[in-house]
Amino acid sequence: MGSAQKTDFLSLNKWISTDIPKREDFNYDNMAIDNAFKSHNDNTSMHVSEAERAAWNEPHFVGFYYGNGSNSARTIETECSFIPSFAIVFAGNSPPGVTDFTGKLHRNRFAFLTKRASSTGVSLSGKNIVIAATGTIAETSETTEYNRNGGLYCYILFR
Predict the structure, then answer these.
(1) Residues ≥6 apart with Cβ < 8 Å to 64
(2) What share of the chain in percent tops pLDDT 90?
């Protein structure tokens, strides 16, 4: 026979001086405690998984690349651990755009990227940034400049 009294929450034995404990009573209490811990531990709505914790602790990724001056399309392979939904690319130590008034040409050096649409001349492809072939934007006096030879570029990728 178990104790005359039980705890309120798990109904564990609450011994008084006249009770005579038996092994089954302790086994019952141990099973009740073990089941309560297992139920609590398995409750995914209460606990954060390691994948969720990693995602929350890494909301963005910052990287750099150097332009190689090529006019061909170029893929910048990031070492990002997630597939970004939004990104920013900009030239380091440079304004977001440069205008040459003598040649009447504006060079864009700053871009926003998303999975579905991006600034002209760049796009996201999975974890990577794709720089389109350099050229003047149709019917404007603008060009993209995301691969200037020796230019330092920074990108920030967001979840």
Answers:
(1) 92, 152, 153, 154, 155
(2) 28
Q: What's the whole-number average pLDDT of the chain?
A: 84
User: 142-144 and 105-108 as β-strands: parallel, antiparallel, unpaired?
Assistant: parallel
Nearest to 124 by CA among 77, 90, 79, 92: 77
Q: Are 110 and 89 in contact (CB under 8 A)?
A: yes
61: left (phi over 0), alpha (psi -120 to 50) or beta: beta
